[in-house]
Design goal:
Blueprint lengths: L4 H6 L19 E5 L2 E4 L4 E4 L2 H4 L8 H13 L11 H13 L4 E7 L2 H17 L8 E5 L8 H5 L19 E3 L5 H14 L3 E6 L3 E2 L5 E2 L2 H14 L2 E5 L13 H5 L5 E4 L11 E6 H5 L20 H16 L2 H16 L8 E7 L2 E6 L5 H10 L2 E2 L6 E4 L7 H17 L1
Parallel strand pairs: 3-15, 5-6, 5-7, 7-10, 10-11
Antiparallel strand pairs: 1-2, 2-3, 4-12, 8-9, 11-12, 13-14, 14-16
């Protein structure tokens, strides 16, 4: 198929994510998006099963979000956040504080998920430094976890399962151990803390679902155990809700399902409804209070150039409106039921190891995938945008997806997997 001019002339200059450029399967040329559809330059239309890494939770080009961004664009696309404040950011901070559980009410904006996690780690470390404690600067993180691609976030992601094995020798040393989810892992976790707590700043975890690590689900008891352990040893508990936040697991935030309030929470992805890059690191009052001082050196030492970008904050405010105006949590429950029913036939397909659903996340885990590129190609030929990774085929559709499109997604997954 011929490619448009902009593709032919620009592709030799682009470097793609997680891609061996020498053997790359050329990406599809996209012309535009609408609702839950991706329209290709050659006119084909794909039903999107993953909502652009689960950001576009209300579907693409949502008119309410578009209008909010357009209005903001006229007023002020950007202004620095040092020494200046603006309505979209302060309104968003107030709304996030009101939505989040407990006293998670101090919001620091950044521009990507990884940076939000970097800020959380820095916040937790400086929390101790500001109190004169210089020994607590390492973190406990979990196997299967993923927190981003920057140096510090790689260091708290699973070194084996993640994409970062290569950098092992270069990364700061933290402790990546088993989640305390059964008798023996709970015992090991407790013993670990008893031995190392004095050197730890905190614990970082993706609550309920470890996403990029393999769409691994675990239950609320592990989160409760983490909260109790953090309290016992006076550790800061960081929930990375960049994937799970804004309804994806069935409650607005995954921490709500467990009734656990973390000390710091990170948010991004669906924050702007998939429109513009924005992230937030939100701290509880006791964390913020450790920075409240007459000493300038106790200030949080971070400040990205594009932090709190007004367009992105306007998009996020409009996205929160959608959660208020539309029955999103009910839709997520419906999607969960449809994913359960629609993906159930996969259980009878040879080579399928597990089928699982949590909220608007449907996962088919295979024993192995022989040819990932071939599988991706089959999905495209069948008219859906589904991107399997490792041994996982997953669906994380927009919450606004119609029953027909959702049925098309699950049916296609079943049919394609039957054929490989
Ligand atoms: C749980 C989690 N944390 C952090 C990140 C990193 O976010 P970003 O890609 O915006 O840097 C991701 C991205 O997939 C994620 O799923």
């Amino acid at each position: 198929m011929t490619k448009p001019d902009w593709y032919e002339s620009g592709f030799p200059h682009i470097w793609l994510p997680y891609t061996q450029m020498k053997t790359v399967t050329p990406p599809l040329a996209v012309s535009h998006t609408h609702d839950t559809r991706i329209v290709l330059d050659d006119g084909r239309e794909l039903v999107d099963g993953i909502a652009s890494w689960w950001t576009a939770c209300h579907g693409y080009n949502h008119p309410h979000i578009r209008a909010a961004v357009a209005t903001q664009l006229e007023l002020m696309p950007h202004v620095m956040f040092g020494g200046l404040a603006h309505k979209p950011a302060l309104t968003l901070a107030k709304r996030l504080a009101a939505m989040l559980p407990g006293d998670l009410d101090r919001v620091f904006f950044t521009d990507s998920g990884s940076v939000a996690v970097e800020v959380a780690l820095k916040m937790a470390t400086q929390y101790w430094l500001n109190q004169g404690v210089r020994t607590r600067h390492t973190f406990v993180a979990f196997k299967g976890g993923y927190h981003g691609d920057t140096i510090a976030t790689m260091a708290v992601s699973d070194p084996e399962e993640g994409m970062h094995t290569l950098f092992g020798g270069l990364l700061p040393k933290h402790h990546v151990i088993d989640l305390p989810r059964d008798e023996s892992s709970i015992k090991a976790f407790d013993a670990f803390l008893a031995k190392h707590a004095d050197t730890l700043a905190g614990i970082i975890v993706e609550p309920l679902v470890q996403g990029a690590g393999g769409m691994l689900f675990y239950d609320i008891n592990a989160l409760r155990h983490l909260r109790a352990a953090a309290d016992r040893y006076d550790l800061l508990l960081i929930f990375d809700e960049i994937f799970t936040g804004f309804g994806r697991t069935g409650t607005m935030f995954a921490c709500e399902a467990a009734g656990v309030v973390p000390d710091i929470i990170t948010l991004s992805k669906a924050l702007t409804g998939g429109t513009l890059p924005l992230a937030a690191t939100v701290a509880r009052r006791k964390v913020f209070e450790a920075f409240w001082s007459d000493a300038a050196s106790h200030a949080l030492m971070h400040g990205p150039t594009y932090m709190a970008n007004p367009l992105a904050c306007a998009a996020a405010n409009a996205s929160l409106d959608m959660f208020e105006h539309e029955p999103r949590l009910a839709q997520i429950a419906d999607i969960a039921a449809a994913l359960e029913t629609g993906l159930a036939p996969c259980r009878d397909i040879k080579g399928v190891k597990d089928v699982r659903v949590k909220g608007a996340i449907g996962v088919v885990e295979l024993k192995h995938i022989d040819d990932l590129n071939d599988l991706k190609r089959r999905f495209i030929e069948a008219g859906v945008w589904v991107r399997p990774f490792n041994k996982i085929v997953y669906l994380t559709p927009a919450f606004s997806i119609g029953a027909e499109d959702l049925d098309m997604l699950t049916t296609t997954v079943v049919e394609v997997l039957k054929k490989i």
